[in-house]
Amino acid sequence: MPPPADIVKVAIEWPGANAQLIEMDQKRPLSSIIREVCDGWSLSGAEQFALRYADGPQLYITEQSRGDIKNGTILRLAISPARAARQLLERIQSHGIDARLEALKELAKLSADPTFATEFINMEGIGTLARLVESGTHFGEMLAFTLTAFLELMDHGIVSWDLISLSFIKQIAGYVNQPMVDVSILQRSLAILESMVLNSHSLYHRVAQEITVGQLIGHLSNQEIQTYAIALINALFLKAPEDRRQEEYTNPLEQHLTEMASTLAQKHLRSIILNHVIRGNRPIKAEMAHQLYVLQVLTFNLLEERMMTKMDPNDQTQRDIIFELRRIAFDGENDPTGTEKRKAMYTKDYKMLGFTNHVNPAMDFTQTPPGMLALDNMLYLAKVHQDTYIRIVLENSSREDKHECPFGRCAIELTRMLCEILQVGELPNEGCNDYHPMFFTHDRAWEEFFCVCIQLLNKTWKEMRATAEDFNKVMQVVREQITRALAMKPPSLDQLKNKLRGLNYSEILRLRQSERMSQDDFQSPPIIELRERIQPEILELIKQQRLNRLCEGSCFRKLGNRRRQEKFWFCRLSLNHKVLHYGDLDESPQGEVPFELLSDKIPVSDIKSVVTGKDCPHMKEKSALKQNKEVLELAFSVLYDPDETLNFVAPNKYEYCIWTDGLCALLGREMGSDLTRSDLDTLISMEMKLRLLDLENITIPEAPPPVPKEPSSYNFTYNYS
């Protein structure tokens, strides 16, 4: 007979004594259980003790968290959080160097525990640590442990960052600016400064006064701290106030960049990241990939102001840009002298340039997006790639067969499309690592990307022999060409050109036809019947593949306020499919994690359901900001008895589909992810093609000669009347 649901069997350890094996009644007060355990070892003052986990993070157990205790868990009797906080606070203020170092080392470990952190903070512990840092008397390991404890305590969100003093900020910034500082101290200092910038508007200004981008760029050559440095650069970039961001340049070719952007350009951030990070001798980890993605998004978001700025048809400076486009294309130095003749010729030229409004092309730039950004792109092409610009304009303006490609209209629509593809103006997504190395290979990557794509559009237009009526069709093909090429992650703009050359119109048609095979082909009744007969077999194969992947296990990241200090946990299914094993890890594993290292487990029989997205308990309190959208799409939770949850955020969409499908298969429910539908269609189509190919290859033997029939003993008389 199974034990009651409220009873869990645990082992409790105490140094120098035999472990106690008890049946813990979850209905009893925790203080009563601790008193009973203390009595078993003849320990007095039970109120000075508490229970902690013996493995993993070794967190304190409270009335709120005791429901997480499972059968077979090993616990440890320890001094209470309040007593531990008081003792450590006294020891870190002692005069003995060795005693203080050991106390700070233990504090750095305990500070991750929210129960202990609350007690330590209530005793003014953060102020004590801040004063130790401000004194400037701590160095080496002692300082590293002090900064670690400070960061962990602040990360709980119990104390506002606004309470941090200016002298503390100056001291932390000093560690970053010093040429010879221990790596561990640099890491924690950069992390603290990033948290200040992200969590306090007032502290942004103070940090920005102490730290320059140039000083941070100097740290990018050190592989141990480059992720922390880029994270701080991103934080400064993201939180820069509007009054510092807007700085117009008189030269229209120099777009409306932010002050931060011009600073980054001057310090050659892009080339240093390219050479020391992207092309470095170490593989790029998930956190670095995320920081590169964030930097890419923030850089492209500098285009948002121009994208959302309408052209003023009465602004002579803006109209001069259009005149310049006309002059470069048609060399209008010998303009007619008469006003009417000049106006008529301009109208003709604007028509040949491909503008929709031939009389006043400024009106073409009054829609946002893409607004003035489209005009900026056109001017960059005309000035920097003048031969290409003239060739595109003239070869289309000279055509008389209605197949001319309208350059102006195409450039405007292409700019809008590129803004959509690269999500210009959108905030970075929390879980996204989708950066493109090629955008770090050129100082004007956006403009160069446009120049490559406008040539692609012109080439595709000719391949399709398109007319004005086919404009939308051409743009659809070009969007597909660009998105397919970007998905290949070309490392440079030249490689992008090579990818696009291979994705000509004929290739797009071939790919489309190939991808439609599973949808449009095999629609005859016998083939449909064959498909229905094959489907259960294929579904079973997919189910086994999903379960096998769960048995291999996956690593998940714990999302917190400080992404760069990654915390991981691993989960995998037992080989007999009866238990989910999981546990915390210090770092991302390289391969499979043994079951012995995973201290927690959930019997599959206890799992009640699997929920996803906004139905997950850990997503219900998340804000609806754009940066949480992708996290929401990757979230799922396992609900199990009695009312417990195991919460996941998958590293990517593939792992999300694998795990949600696998868990559904484990519970005997339908696998409904997009990946399963895609795999099902692909595998069924492949199997059907193989079977049909076998039928086509069957050699039918020649029919044997007819056997003479014996005369029939029955005579039939047919009456045709």
Can you offer a commentary on this structure?
Helices cover 52% and strands 9% of the residues. It is flat, with a radius of gyration of 34 Å. Helix 8 packs parallel to helix 11 (226-239). The protein is an alpha+beta fold. Strands 2-1-4-3 form a 4-stranded mixed β-sheet. The protein folds into 4 domains: 7-79, Roll (Ubiquitin-like (UB roll)); 160-246 and 254-283, no CATH class; 308-516, no CATH class; 535-678, Pleckstrin-homology domain (PH domain)/Phosphotyrosine-binding domain (PTB) (PH-domain like, Roll).
Please give the structural blueprint:
Layout (H helix, E strand, L loop, with lengths): L6 E7 L6 E6 L4 H11 L8 E5 L20 E6 L1 H11 L5 H14 L3 H9 L2 H11 L4 H16 L10 H12 L5 H17 L1 H10 L2 H5 L8 H14 L2 H4 L13 H8 L2 H10 L7 H15 L3 H4 L8 H15 L8 H14 L19 H13 L1 H12 L9 H15 L23 H19 L7 H17 L5 H10 L2 H16 L4 H28 L1 E5 L8 E7 L5 E7 L14 E4 L3 E6 L16 H6 E6 L3 E6 L3 H14 L7 H23 L25
Parallel strand pairs: 1-4
Antiparallel strand pairs: 1-2, 3-4, 5-6, 6-7, 7-8, 9-10, 10-11
Helix pairs in contact: 2-3, 2-4, 3-6, 5-6, 5-7, 6-8, 7-8, 8-9, 8-11, 11-15, 17-19, 19-20, 19-21, 21-22, 21-23, 22-23, 22-24, 26-28, 26-29
GO cellular component, one term: cytoplasm
GO molecular function, one term: SH3 domain binding
InterPro entries: ARM-like, ARM-type_fold, ELMO_ARM, ELMO_dom, ELMO_domain-containing, PH-like_dom_sf, PH_domain
